[in-house]
């Protein structure tokens, strides 16, 4: 029996706003192996680091501030749960989290294209903008979940092993545990904002190619390129334009008093870049001929 | 193959379309612009001329002194457009090169800047007279005369230029002295300089006593050493402080004539002898005191009428905050506008963090702009200071927070807090010759003192007290944080067997966890006389501790340490043991201040604005998207001529026709025309076959039908609604184009269910059971799709296309990968499907299948429809049959007689007969009656004939146009 049509020509009970809902897309991505593995890795990593510290013992108390922030924070990582979580975040922030976010956001459209299911979704019809929005939202959610999982598990494991102590910083003294937790959440928030740039880039590449690896790898490569260029001081003030220039600005939350100037600038840069990339992705996808 | 050909084949050769050229050109221009802007050399706005100016100096004004000067003249200044002038003086032991950066900054702002090397230093002639009114001040007056003679310098009166004197340390002292002796100076900015050299070099921190001070031997020795080296090369002193820092290696041999005395160097004789005497004895007699006072603003500060901006360093053991305080009070007593600012640098602390440098620069420029250029309103007399608040984890530098107070409170603060220290009287031994001596600060080694006072915890203090040489008195842990701004004071009692004692009183900030720090490394030396030998008879003496800016956090303790030695001061040589006590209240001055907002605060507003803007933009975009969606579907007529693809109203004349394709054309960017003109219609109940060779444009047309590709021109209407990508009418269309597309990690059933969930329609509408029936996969439906064979995936894809039983079914090669029984089943399914008002469009190569399945056929070739209509029409009226007979000759005669249209012999006993309505049975019967043996009777593949004739048989290059 032919379905009764509606005024807009769609089939009965078809609503454009009902297609590919958030929950459906969530389920679509949740069943994938890479989602489960990534989130599982986020849980396992802090535990692995914890075990590694057990092997290390207390025999690397070499002083010297000229080894930089990393070595300094590694030395005090065993002082308490908060320090351990901070250390885990520090070692993951520059590369691992970039890869995870690029994976979630760069794989989402490109993998559908490579499986051939993208054209059937578009033929449902799921409006193109809605498809992008739904997939992006779910990818961002998973990235955020990964971030929170990493920090949460590190905090829990660190507290269980080392106890709940004030946050020790190398130069600015101790920060009481309660405010330190808030600062840790602030660091998390800032990392999330700077990772939006990676998400945008990966998403843009995802709608442009059919190869998921190309999208993910491309986003990571460009992020690495930006970090390399940032090290070249000969570029002078041009470096402010690079998206990763303020990537380390969250260290300002460890200062006493809190230095938020660089974080504010970093947030502005990240939002601008992310908006640019997302706008380009939308524009490209809405106009292109889907050939996958 | 030559290399060039190979290269040409390998390298990409994109077509240069206009869009690509424009985009590439734009990107290139942007990159070139950015690089050019960054690398463009900037030309300065001023001219520099170095010259030697000879001034008449000396007590009688007749001694010519040749001064090495540099004059920075702004290019905007001329005789018609005069500019005010600034005399920029350098610090002790330096030359005019030390202040070049500041001179350039001022010249950029339109001031004419004159820098010179003070006499006795560098390439200038003369001797060092320590800013004596007879010599250095007269030199500066001579320079003012010179400036008055320049045409581009603004004059207040003939011979009186609009001029300010700016300088640090030695240069600051000169600025004050010049203002006192020459009324032509219109404003001064002395930095980190002294009020009275006697107080600076022989400080006495005990109040109410006439005893002489304690000689600051380390600093004095440094100064003397830098002036006393007669033949060292170069002039640039270490450290960029406009003033102090570590004094450099002194002057080059500028003065010809008699070889200088090696112990005096370029110092004037009287000064040299005074220093040698004081350094030996540790005391200054009246003549020496008068000599030092003559070179100090203390002698003339009641004569300074030029508005004064006093900038003093908090980390400065040479000229501490008390010097600037004395200057400020004395000058303000005249009614002269005075403003005071403290910063965390100084002779020990350097220039301070960037925020301090910016603040000092801002204050200086504001002062000069108003009093020289008469620009802006009068600067307020508010007092600003800063406190080292911690370490910046980002830059590993110090962080200073700036504060502002309405009026300069002086060193006594606006209010006081009293903290009690307690402890028994303790002995402290004075070491022979002052060795080993406690270390409170290293002169000029700024970073150490700065870190010692700034770091919250865990950093090493630079101070060292020698055990046995000091007495400590502790307070109870502080209940609340105390911000000290000013000079604390404490009462000390002492007893000495000799009747005299030289003691150093220090106020420490003790953190129970990490140790004691001495704020800014400053100590208060006291020289007590008339002391009893018995401690019980000792009377308290009030000691004014050095002025500091320090935050004593709650939980910390105060510690008053009375020490007997300090490496920076000259102590009695004879070893003695004193008994000291410092119990009672420590008075801590505090002020009521407001923090100075950092200029970076503006970025927070930018961020807030950006977030609001983005949120608004997102909301608007979503709303627009929804509106455009409802409009596109034809729910309301939209005669929007601005929209390129005009959304027409619903075509009611086509409302009942499932699919109408009109004039479809698809041309790609590089000029390839995939579909040139395609028109066809699919009515209800029809199964239409879309036929064509490879590259005819079938798949492209189907992709347009699915809403994946936008056609270059032409329209498609489904039930009267225009079909564009995303049109809701697509939900009445089910498709299988270019193969199946499933999530390989899910089972077949899960895939179907997930797909239906993506449509948003209720599950009951899916008719899942019927679809699964058609797929016919049985139990395999629960296995993961990646384990399926191609045929299974194909059947599942057909089932997915049939989910919800759409009214239009579009299938591209549905039988690809199916085995013959499945093909036969599919045939039946499709025929059954096209009932109840539904329509099916099948694109296929298998002509036999199309002939059996479809009711209508559309043949496309090279992007155009070459034939369309019912299958029978395409095939033709007369079906032909192939007869295999024993006697072709006889057979053809017989058949011709039975009334067939044509008989064509093909050799080997095969005849192709076009039966014209005659039934096959009749023909066979006629042949048999005639005695001809009939071997085979085969109906010819009729559609194939028609098809091949339509496409002309040239399928080789069918992809090219």
Rg of chain A, please?
A: 22 Å
Mean pLDDT of chain A: 87
Q: Low-confidence spans of chain A: pLDDT under 50, at least 5 residues? A: 61-66
Radius of gyration of chain B, CA atoms, in whole angstroms: 51 Å
Shape of chain B: elongated
Largest interface: A-B, 77 and 83 residues
The share of residues in extended strands of chain A comes to under 5%
The DSSP helix count of chain A reads 10
By helix and strand content of chain B, what is the structural category? alpha+beta
Q: Biggest β-sheet of chain A: count, sense, barrel?
A: 2 strands, antiparallel
H/E element order of chain A: HHHHHHHEEHHH
Helix coverage percent of residues of chain A?
Answer: 55-70%
Q: Which structural category fits the helices and strands of chain A?
A: mainly alpha
Strand content of chain B: 25-35%
Can you offer a commentary on this structure?
The complex is a heterodimer of chains A (292) and B (961). Chain A is mostly helical and 292 residues long. Chain A has 10 helices and 2 strands. In chain A, strands 1-2 form a two-stranded antiparallel sheet. In chain A, helix 4 packs parallel to helix 8 (177-208) and helix 7 runs antiparallel to helix 8 (177-208). Residues 61-66 of chain A have low confidence and may be disordered. By secondary structure, chain B is α+β, with helices and mostly antiparallel strands. In chain B, a hairpin with a 3-residue loop joins strand 18 (501-511) and strand 19 (515-517). Chain B is elongated, with a radius of gyration of 51 Å. The model of chain B is unreliable at 231-257, 447-461 and 634-647 (pLDDT under 50). The interface between A and B is large, with 77 and 83 residues.
């Amino acid at each position: 029996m032919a379905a009764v049509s509606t005024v807009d020509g769609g089939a009965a009970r078809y609503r454009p706003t009902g297609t590919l809902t958030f929950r459906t897309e969530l389920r679509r991505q949740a069943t994938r192996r890479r989602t489960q593995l990534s989130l599982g890795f986020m849980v396992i990593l802090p535990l692995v680091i914890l075990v590694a510290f057990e092997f290390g013992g207390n025999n690397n108390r070499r002083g010297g501030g000229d080894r930089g922030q990393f070595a300094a924070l590694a030395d005090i990582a065993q002082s308490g749960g908060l320090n351990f979580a901070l250390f885990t975040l520090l070692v993951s922030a520059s590369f691992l989290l970039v890869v995870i976010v690029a994976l979630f956001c760069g794989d989402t459209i490109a993998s559908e294209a490579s499986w051939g299911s993208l054209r059937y979704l578009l033929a449902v019809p799921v409006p193109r903008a809605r498809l992008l929005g739904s997939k992006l939202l779910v990818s961002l959610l998973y990235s955020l979940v990964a971030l929170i999982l990493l920090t949460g598990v590190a905090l829990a494991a660190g507290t269980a092993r080392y106890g709940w102590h004030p946050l020790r910083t190398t130069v600015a003294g101790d920060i009481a545990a309660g405010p330190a937790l808030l600062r840790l959440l602030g660091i998390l928030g800032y990392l999330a904002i700077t990772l939006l740039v990676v998400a945008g880039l990966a998403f843009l590449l995802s709608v442009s190619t059919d190869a998921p690896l190309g999208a993910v790898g491309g986003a990571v490569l460009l992020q690495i390129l930006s970090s390399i260029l940032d090290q070249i001081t000969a570029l002078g003030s041009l470096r402010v334009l690079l998206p990763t220039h303020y990537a380390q600005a969250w260290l300002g939350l460890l200062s006493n008093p809190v230095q938020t100037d660089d974080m504010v600038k970093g947030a502005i840069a990240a939002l601008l870049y992310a908006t640019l990339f997302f706008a380009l992705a939308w524009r490209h996808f809405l106009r292109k001929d889907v050939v996958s | 193959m030559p290399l060039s050909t190979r290269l040409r084949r390998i390298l990409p050769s994109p077509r240069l379309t206009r869009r690509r050229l424009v985009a590439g050109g734009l990107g290139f221009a942007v990159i070139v612009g950015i690089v050019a802007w960054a690398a463009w050399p900037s030309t300065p706005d001023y001219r520099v001329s170095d010259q030697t100016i000879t001034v008449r100096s000396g007590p009688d004004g007749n001694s010519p002194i040749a001064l090495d000067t540099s004059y920075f003249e702004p290019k905007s200044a001329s005789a018609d457009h005069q500019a005010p002038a600034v005399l920029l003086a350098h610090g002790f032991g330096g030359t005019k090169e030390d202040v070049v950066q500041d001179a350039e900054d001022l010249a950029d702002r339109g001031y004419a800047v004159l820098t010179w090397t003070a006499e006795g230093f560098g390439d200038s002639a003369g001797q060092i007279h320590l800013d004596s009114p007879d010599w250095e001040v007269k030199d500066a007056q001579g320079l003012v005369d010179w400036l008055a003679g320049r045409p581009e310098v603004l004059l207040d009166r003939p011979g009186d230029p609009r001029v300010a004197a700016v300088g640090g340390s030695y240069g600051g002292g000169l600025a004050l002295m010049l203002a006192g002796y020459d009324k032509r100076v219109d404003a001064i900015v002395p930095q980190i300089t002294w009020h009275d050299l006697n107080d600076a070099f022989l400080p006495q921190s005990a109040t109410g006593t006439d005893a002489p001070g304690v000689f600051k031997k380390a600093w004095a020795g440094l100064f003397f050493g830098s002036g006393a080296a007669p033949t060292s090369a170069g002039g640039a002193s270490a450290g960029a402080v406009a003033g102090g820092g570590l004094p450099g290696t002194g002057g080059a041999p500028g003065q010809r004539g008699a070889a200088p005395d090696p112990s005096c160097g370029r110092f004037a004789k009287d000064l040299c002898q005074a220093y040698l005497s004081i350094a030996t004895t540790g005391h200054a007699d009246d003549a020496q005191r008068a000599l030092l006072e003559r070179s100090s603003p203390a002698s003339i500060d009641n004569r300074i009428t030029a508005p004064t901006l006093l900038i003093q360093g908090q980390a400065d053991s040479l000229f501490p905050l008390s010097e600037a305080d004395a200057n400020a009070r004395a000058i303000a007593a005249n009614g002269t506008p005075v403003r005071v600012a403290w910063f965390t640098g100084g002779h020990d602390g350097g220039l301070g963090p960037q925020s301090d440098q910016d603040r000092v620069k801002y204050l200086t420029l504001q002062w000069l702009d108003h009093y020289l250029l008469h620009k802006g309103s009068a600067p307020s007399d508010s007092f600003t200071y800063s406190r080292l608040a911690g370490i910046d984890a980002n830059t590993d530098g110090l962080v200073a927070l700036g504060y502002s107070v309405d009026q300069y409170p002086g060193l006594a603060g606006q209010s006081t807090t009293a903290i009690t220290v307690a402890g028994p009287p303790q002995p402290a031994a004075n070491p022979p010759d002052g060795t080993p001596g406690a270390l409170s600060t290293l002169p000029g080694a700024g970073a150490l003192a700065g870190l010692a006072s700034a770091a919250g915890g865990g950093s090493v203090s630079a101070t060292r007290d020698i055990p046995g040489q000091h007495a400590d008195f502790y307070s109870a842990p502080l209940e609340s944080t105390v911000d000290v701004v000013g000079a604390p004071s404490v009462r000390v009692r002492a007893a000495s067997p000799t009747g005299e004692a030289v003691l150093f009183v220090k106020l420490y900030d003790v953190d129970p966890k990490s140790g004691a720090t001495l704020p800014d490394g400053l100590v208060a030396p006291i020289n007590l006389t008339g002391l009893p030998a018995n401690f019980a008879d000792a009377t308290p003496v009030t000691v004014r501790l050095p002025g500091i800016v320090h935050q004593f956090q709650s939980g910390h303790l105060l510690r008053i340490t009375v020490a007997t030695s300090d490496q920076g001061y000259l102590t009695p040589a004879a070893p003695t043991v004193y008994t000291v006590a410092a119990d009672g209240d420590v008075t801590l001055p505090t002020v009521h201040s407001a923090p100075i907002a950092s200029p970076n605060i503006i970025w927070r507003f930018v961020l807030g604005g950006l977030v609001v803007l983005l949120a608004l933009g997102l909301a608007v975009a979503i709303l627009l998207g929804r509106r455009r969606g409802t409009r596109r579907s034809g729910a309301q007529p939209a005669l929007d001529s601005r929209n390129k693809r005009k959304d027409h109203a619903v075509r009611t004349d086509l409302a009942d026709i499932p699919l109408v394709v009109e004039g479809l054309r698809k041309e790609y960017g590089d000029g390839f025309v995939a579909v040139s003109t395609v028109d066809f219609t699919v009515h209800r109940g029809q199964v239409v076959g879309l036929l064509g060779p490879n590259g005819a444009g079938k798949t492209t047309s189907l992709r347009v039908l699915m809403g994946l590709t936008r056609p270059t021109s032409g329209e498609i209407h489904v039930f009267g609604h225009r079909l564009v990508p995303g049109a809701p009418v697509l939900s009445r269309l089910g498709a299988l184009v270019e193969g199946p597309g499933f999530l390989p990690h899910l089972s077949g059933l899960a895939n179907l269910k997930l797909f239906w969930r993506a449509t948003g329609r209720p599950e009951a509408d899916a008719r899942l059971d019927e679809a699964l029936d058609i797929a016919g996969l049985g139990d395999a439906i629960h296995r993961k799709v990646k384990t399926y064979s191609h045929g299974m995936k194909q059947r599942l894809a057909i089932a997915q296309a049939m989910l919800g039983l759409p009214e239009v079914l579009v299938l591209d090669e549905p039988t690809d990968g199916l085995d013959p029984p499945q093909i036969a089943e599919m045939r039946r399914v499709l025929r059954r499907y096209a009932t109840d008002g539904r329509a099916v469009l099948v694109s296929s190569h298998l002509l036999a299948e199309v002939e059996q399945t479809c009711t209508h056929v559309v043949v496309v070739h090279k992007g155009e429809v070459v034939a369309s209509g019912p299958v029978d029409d395409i095939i033709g009226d007369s079906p032909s049959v192939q007869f295999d007979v024993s006697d072709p000759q006889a057979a053809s005669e017989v058949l011709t007689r039975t009334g067939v249209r044509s008989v064509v012999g093909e050799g080997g006993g095969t005849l192709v007969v076009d039966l014209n309505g005659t039934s096959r049975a009749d023909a066979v019967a006629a042949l048999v009656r005639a005695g001809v043996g009939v071997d085979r009777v085969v109906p010819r593949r009729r559609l194939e004939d028609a098809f091949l004739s339509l496409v002309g048989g040239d399928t080789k290059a069918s992809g090219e146009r």
